[in-house]
Design goal:
This protein is α/β, with parallel strands linked by helices and 375 residues long. The protein has helices at 11-21, 63-76, 86-102, 109-128, 172-175, 187-196, 218-228, and strands at 2-6, 27-34, 80-84, 133-135, 140-144, 151-155, 178-179, 238-242, 247-251, 274-279, 284-288, 294-305, 314-320, 328-334, 340-349, 356-361, 364-374. The strands form 3 sheets. Strands 12-15-14-13-16-17 form a 6-stranded antiparallel beta barrel. A 5-stranded parallel beta sheet has the order 3-2-1-4-7, sandwiched between helices. The chain has a 4-stranded mixed beta sheet with strand order 9-8-11-10, with no helix packed on it.
């Protein structure tokens, strides 16, 4: 058996490769994805946090990370290759990210990258070089139900590091080729493995930013990307209104706001105001008090069911509307058009279109999709 390992240059994927390489049975091949040229948009270079080598630090998939992954592969004595997916990444992740932000959503590109790039394109590449499966450094667990033949996805043992939320979009075909060697381990155990194997990334800090967005400034990225494409941010000025429609001010574009935002509204009022809705149809930012942020129902689109759930089926589950959100009890109705309606037992704060709603039965991921609207 040959296992390809997606090596990002961080301690997690490096430890996953080390665990597999220590097993005498499988042969291991390291693969690193070249996704985005981080020097491509010169206007953003001043926003970078520069590491000791002169490259951007704090984000995954940098040139430093490719160098680190290659060093780890050398220490482990495994073959290593860099595969260029820049064009595919731009089509499937960057452009949807920009268009959704301009439409008033708050997208999470990491889930798109997992589904469309890592477990689609990279799995295909792994198969082309003779590998049987693709292992990653995600903290999640995977089991095959021998009775049904279906694969089941579970949260990691280390709940503080669990990344199952970002994997909701994986199909049965993709899960059948996946492996998550770190699912039963804690972060402390993973670092201990890296130290024991003398991996050069054992003390490397974790990346915190979206790989193509410097210093977390997605607004600057969108402006620079559109300028590179021969355009500019469209003039999408509109009203900031109260919940009852009363004009309070003017905004310069929905992409500058997200549901739950309090600062940067440019309004002088006697009490705190929060963004409670981005009305793309009427190009309005709707604000209200803290209590107005709570919603009980949301519509979810492009649902991927990992468990076998029939159209029209109703199930009770726990639903996460953000990665760090504590899963809340809800009633979920599956619909024929690839959508689902989620009704929470108690109202939830800042249900945000563009984010993922992921359905759990205990620690098992039942499915999930993209939040389209909340009410």
């Amino acid at each position: 058996m040959i296992t390809a390992v997606a090596m990002s240059g961080g301690v997690d994927s490096s430890a996953a490769a080390a665990l597999l390489a220590a097993n005498a049975r499988p042969s291991v091949v390291g693969l690193t994805m070249q996704l985005w040229n981080q020097r491509r948009l010169p206007a953003l270079q001043g926003l970078e946090v520069i590491g000791p080598s002169g490259h951007a630090s704090g984000r995954c998939c940098s040139l430093d990370d490719v160098y680190d992954a290659r060093r780890v592969a050398h220490v482990l004595g495994i073959p290593y290759y860099v595969v260029n997916y820049e064009s595919r990444f731009e089509d499937d992740v960057i452009r949807p990210f920009v268009s959704r932000y301009l439409a008033g959503e708050t997208p999470i590109p990491c889930s798109l990258c997992n589904t469309e790039i890592k477990f689609e394109r990279l799995v295909t590449t792994a198969l082309e070089i003779g590998a049987d499966r693709l292992a990653t450094g995600h903290y999640a667990r995977l089991l095959c139900d021998e009775r049904t033949g279906r694969y089941r996805l579970f949260a990691a043992r280390d709940r503080a590091k669990d990344q199952s939320y970002f994997l909701f979009g994986l199909t049965q075909q993709q899960l059948a080729r996946a492996a998550f060697p770190l699912g039963e381990l804690t972060k402390e155990q993973v670092r201990a493995i890296a130290r024991e194997r003398r991996l050069p990334v054992a003390e490397k800090p974790e990346s915190q930013e979206i790989c193509f967005v410097p210093a977390g400034s997605y607004r600057d990225f969108i402006a620079a990307y559109l300028a590179e494409q021969g355009g500019a941010l469209p003039d999408r000025r509109g009203e900031i209104v109260s919940r009852d429609g009363r004009p309070l001010g003017e905004h310069t574009g929905l992409h500058n706001f997200t549901v739950g935002q309090r600062k940067g509204l440019g309004l002088a009022t006697g009490s705190p105001l929060y963004v409670i809705e981005l009305d793309a149809e009427r190009n309005r930012v709707v604000v209200g008090c803290k209590d107005d942020l709570y919603r009980r129902v949301c519509r979810v689109r492009q649902v991927n069911w990992i468990r076998d759930v029939a159209s029209g089926e109703v199930l009770e589950a726990q639903v996460k509307i953000r990665h760090k959100h504590v899963a809340a009890p809800a009633r979920i109705e599956s619909r024929a058009n690839g959508e689902a309606m989620v009704a929470f037992a108690e109202p939830q704060r800042a249900i945000t279109p563009g984010q993922a709603a992921v359905f759990y039965d205990g620690d098992e991921v039942v499915g999930g999709g993209w939040i389209a609207e909340a009410r």
